[in-house]
Design a protein that fits this description.
GO molecular function: RNA binding
Distance between the termini: 25 Å
Keywords: Repeat, RNA-binding
Structural class: alpha+beta
Organism: Escallonia rubra
Strand content: 25-35%
Pfam family, one: dsrm
Protein name: DRBM domain-containing protein
């Protein structure tokens, strides 16, 4: 899920009191078939993509992924907590009401199990069982966010290059 990396890189920088990531790009190709390569500078180091992409957004997220994975190899497993924020942003963008979570608790008192459902756009999404209410809500948010087809990754990589370029 490349689209998570700009957010993750910014959070990484803020938690470590680093300057915010600074993105720059190179545009290649004619006006009707642009390709973008991006780099990001964080903590006085620059990271860049090897591939070109059909959109600037994809190129910046790819550069953020390179930087995040280089800076934080131990934290590269998915941060499920991002999904609640991403889902809220998606709901706002799509004009849906704020996501509403409903959590059910079951099991013995000393080892409860939680299952959350989130309603977005009138459709309920249930997450996997969890040991805490917070984790259950994150699982529901991930299920809802992942179900939106326009959020799934596309391979927008360009495989051609032209001799002229400009900076963004």
């Amino acid at each position: 899920m490349v689209h998570l990396y700009k957010n993750r890189l910014q959070t990484y920088a803020q938690k470590r009191n680093l300057g915010l990531p600074i993105y720059s790009c190179e545009i290649n190709g004619p006006s009707h078939a642009r390709c973008f390569k991006s780099r990001v500078k964080i903590d006085d180091k620059t990271y860049e993509t090897l591939d070109s992409f059909t959109t600037l957004k994809e190129a910046e997220h790819a550069a953020a992924k390179v930087a995040f994975e280089s800076l934080s190899p131990d934290e590269t497993q998915e941060d499920e907590g991002l999904y609640k924020s991403l889902l809220q942003e998606l709901a706002q963008k799509e004009g849906f009401p704020v996501p509403v979570y409903d959590t059910a608790k079951s099991g013995p008192f000393h080892i409860p199990t939680f299952v959350s459902t989130v309603d977005i756009g009138g459709k309920p999404f249930q997450g996997q069982k969890a040991r805490t209410k917070k984790e259950a809500e994150m699982n529901a948010a991930k299920a809802a966010y992942s179900s939106f087809p326009e959020r799934k990754e596309s391979n927008g990589t360009c495989h051609f290059d032209f001799s002229f370029s400009s900076l963004c």
